[in-house]
Amino acid sequence: MLYALGHPASFVVLVASYVFGVTLHGWVQALVSARLGDAQVRHNHRLRFNPRHHVDPFGALGALIGGLGWAVPVDLPGRRDRRRSWLVGLAGPLANIVLGVGLLLLFRFVVTSGTALAIAATWAHLGDTSFAGSTVPVSVTAGGALQHGIALSGDAAGIALLLAGLSQLYLGVFSLLPIPPLSGGRLLLALAPHSLGWQRARHYLVEQNIGIAVLIVLLVLPLGGRLLVLYLLDSLLAPLLRVLLGV
């Protein structure tokens, strides 16, 4: 998101959306965990909808670099309570995805013309030759907008809504990647067997913070001018964006 400082208004939208999304992610996981009998989340103040209890410093660094990050993890019980592990682990990502889908559907039904709609069409039809010569002032991809921002012109409200929805959707799907400390990675390790190989994986990925190092690399490593993780998410989510945005 630091690259978006060239567009101060969209930078503010992206930061606000990220902080809200990560807080929602951690709060929903804590709420589900508490409802299933975990008293520790209350002692750690995780049931408060307060960013300082949910925003992870390294996750915030990842977001500043690559536009995506993660929340402070909520402990999972592991194989001794698989149901709670599944429910808590997936609650945060699903909350972000549902919010993102809702905001993008709202955009679809309230924005019927203008620059924001042209931008949405460019993202949804990435690679379509009919958009190859587009002069819309936006990064080539949706993921690029999370990193570099967009100039909020006369269609500021529509573009802000589009950015907020995109941020939540990408944050939720990113959180499902099987790399700790992301929710998907923590869920994978929580449900993995207690074999020597998995114990080593837990040691290096979690205790030695190798998982964080891998994520930071993914958020800074370019692929054809785009960040690797954003390239992967763009490829995965382009069909869904086309359906949600109706363009």
Number of helices: 11
Helix and strand pattern? HHHHHHHHHHEEH
Q: Determine Rg (CA atoms, Å).
A: 18 Å
Tally the structural domains.
Answer: 1
Strand tally, please?
2
Taking pLDDT < 50 over at least 5 consecutive residues as the criterion, the unreliable ranges are 127-138
* Sheet with most strands: strand arrangement: 1-2
Strand content: under 5%
Helical coverage, percent range: 55-70%
What class do helices, strands and sheet pairing give? Answer: mainly alpha
Largest sheet: 2 strands, antiparallel
* Rough outline: globular
The termini sit apart by 26 Å
User: Mean of the pLDDT scores?
Assistant: 87
Explain what this protein looks like in three dimensions.
The protein has helices at 8-35, 40-43, 57-66, 82-110, 115-124, 142-148, 156-174, 183-191, 196-207, 210-218, 228-245, and strands at 222-223, 226-227. A two-stranded antiparallel sheet has the order 1-2. It has one domain. The radius of gyration is 18 Å and the shape is globular. A hairpin with a 2-residue loop joins β1 (222-223) and β2. Mean pLDDT is 87; it is low at 127-138. It contains 11 helices and 2 strands, in the order ααααααααααββα.
